[in-house]
User: Fold this.
Amino acid sequence: MRNRIPLQLLGHDKYLEMRAGARVVEQDEHGEKVLLLPDGTYFKLFRRKRVLTSAAWKPYAQRFVENAAALHRLGIPCPQVLKHYRIPAISRDAVHYLPLEGETIRQVIAGGLGEARADALRHQLLEFIHHIHSLGIFFRSAHLGNIVLTPENTLGLIDISDLRISWFRLGRFRRRRNLRHVLRYRDDREWLRRSIEWARLDK
Ligand SMILES: Nc1ncnc2c1ncn2[C@@H]1O[C@H](COP(=O)(O)OP(=O)(O)O)[C@@H](O)[C@H]1O
Ligand SMILES: [Mg+2]
Assistant:
């Protein structure tokens, strides 16, 4: 089961050994962000920010770890954290996790799906977002590349650092704001707007 995951120090040599043969899945101008290791597990790197941002309070890797545990308790599919590391040599924290099985909705769309399936998926997505909102979850990184359709045909979340869970269901205002997040990328929005219920939300 998912017990508390301790933060472990990882030396540079150990890190290089771990990541040997990894495929870089995401990177930006600061470097590598997400690695897929040869054994099929993921390794997500987080920059340690020195300045006074909210990340100084609670590092993003730690948020990832805590959110995974909380989502699991709430029954929302998400990656299963294996380890939580600090890697001083590269000024990064890292979370090593088992992927959430399935494909992101963006990948599902790119793979091509019929209009009837697409419409069902749009509806399922809206229901899912209503559901997480009723659980008090505000998923800031809500977009179709961060929501996964699992082989069990349920939806789940990846990229879970930027997510807040409150004790109460979200109010109207925050629900609305979060739905706007889902509609913020052009391609996602175009796809979603093909259903009446999403088009109605996007006014
Ligand atoms: N738990 C996971 N399950 C499946 N795929 C994942 C998982 N984590 C990451 N990926 C893959 O890596 C990509 C980037 O991961 P993500 O956590 O969204 O990083 P970023 O912060 O760069 O958006 C995803 O779009 C997905 O293809
Ligand atoms: Mg992402």
User: Anything to note?
Assistant: Helices lie at 12-18, 54-57, 60-74, 105-110, 115-134, 172-182, 186-192, 196-201.
